[in-house]
Amino acid sequence: MDINERIQYVNRGFCEASGYTEEDLIGKHPAVVFKLDEETRNRMRAVNESRKKGESSVNEVVITMKNGEKKWLAISGTPLYDEKGNVSGSMGIHMDISEQKQLEGELREAKSIAEKAADAKESFLANMSHEIRTPMNGILGMTELCLQTRTTDEQRSYLEMTHTSAKSLLAVINDILDF
Q: What pTM value is reported for the model?
């Protein structure tokens, strides 16, 4: 591109990948040809201003191919200098990263699903912990209270078995919920 951000040269590979011909591109502003949205235009304007100061950068943008398909490109840009050392434009190397961006999106979606599942599991375990442990602790407490009252030997035997069974069951429940 020249200093005014007009395309001065494109290689054949870029033309083949984008569907545009040299005639479609030479002398044109990339933001218009590739139908960049306003946010991307503003970002690229800032990048080009920094390029005029001699700065290189890599930027990711979505462009529209001639057939209307949207593609993500990583653009590695660097300033070009004239024979006096002044910035006369810039050169960019474009790499199609559409597949990578699609995979990143799928990964974000999978992560979100996994986080929701983890939240649901945590909520379920918290509810189960309360719903199961609370009555078990009630059974243990009531049998302990009954054991402190006057009972027949047969009743005491039943209460002790109930208490022991409840303690064992609570231990199993705790192990399962902890797991």
A: 0.65
